[in-house]
Amino acid sequence: MLIDLKHGDAHAVFDMEAGNIPVWTIGGRSPLHVAPWRDEPEVQDDPNVADVDKRLAGDFFCMPFGRDDVHGHPIHGPTANAPWLMLNAEGSKGVFANTLPKMGDAVVAKEIRLVGESLLQRHIIDKGRGDVTFAHHPMVRMEEGGRLSFSRKRAAMTDPVAQHAGHNLWALNQVRGDLNLDCEDGGQWDLRTYPAGHVVEDFCTLVESRDNTLGWTCVMRNAEADMLLVLKDPAMMPVTMLWISNGARDFPPWNSRHTGVLGIEDGRALGGQGLAAAARDNRLSAMDVPTVLPLGEVHVIRHAMVSLPRPPGWSELSAVVLSRGTLTLREASGAEIAVPFPEGHFD
User: Fold this and answer.
1) N or C: the chain end with fewer CB closer than 10 Å?
2) CA distance 42 to 330
3) pLDDT means per 10 residues in the chain (347 residues)?
């Protein structure tokens, strides 16, 4: 069942069966990516493809994030593979729920709200037992690449194992204090540039600076001449995981046609290493970065996306400041624009 939400000229759709947001349009822009096989019958009927991959689109909430080697859930957990229950949906706001029986009947309530250029989400986690990883999973596609900007990070790291063996640009199992990752060929790659000219499947984790009160990622798309700003509460989501998917997956249903895709996966996890590893002492927890969320109490996870036209000449953000209902975006040149943003969302 598809639920439509509207505010002004903004339109979003929540797919209750897949748990994702396959449509978000605003001002003629479509910021989010939809997999090309999403409606192909042969993929939808394939029992070997996880539901989250069959209907891959937009943004969805992962709990647990990635591999669940504790409870045996499919990749990204029941929140991304099982139907949601609608609690209320009217106008610009929808509220939905999902229950996780294998985690002590933990309840996840999802709130989606459209306000102007923003798509706001809150996930309220209640009850349950044990520890769990989680992350948002918005995806954007770039026809001709783009430029990324980030809030201050104190580390960048890659997993010990590749997403798709032999197809990673970045060297494995590294930890750096800047945004320049070592590559397999001995060179370096600036994480602010999407590797559009490379057929790769890559993944890295960025760790938020300790004093950040607002975490953000900005994608400026070249061909599309727009920008997507993704905002998070860094206390709840201390890492941003970047998934680069650019034609390297040559097996069904991907078949080398998943190109130009960037996942901006803000959350609490140990990269792509699975729930069991995240629940143990690890290299992130050694940096005082939490990699799991303890169930059994109420947690509120706040996230937002803002879609804007790209101002002429802009190539990179140097700062994003939220104050009194206004987002101030500063470009590397010092130029600024002010964007209305709903007060109270990150309170």
Assistant:
1) C
2) 47
3) 96 96 96 96 93 96 96 95 96 97 96 97 97 98 97 97 95 97 96 95 97 97 97 98 97 96 98 96 97 97 98 96 95 96 92
Grouping H, G, I as helix, E, B as strand and the rest as coil, residue 93 is strand
User: In terms of pTM, does the model score above 0.85?
Assistant: yes
Measured distance between the N- and C-terminal CA atoms of the chain, rounded to whole angstroms: 32
Indicate whether 121 belongs to any domain: yes
Under 8 Å CB-to-CB from 180, ≥6 apart: which residues?
A: 188, 189, 190, 191
Q: Is 336 within the bounds of a domain?
A: yes
Mean of pLDDT over the chain: 96
Token pair of 11, please? Answer: 């339109």
Residue 190 lies in a domain: yes
Collapsing DSSP to helix, strand or coil, 126 comes out as: strand
- Nearest-angstrom CA–CA distance, 52 and 107: 19
Backbone angles phi, psi at 102, to 5 degrees: -75, -5
Its domain, for residue 296, covers 2-340
Name the DSSP class of 8.
T
Q: Which two tokens stand for residue 68?
A: 């669940």
Is residue 163 in some structural domain? yes
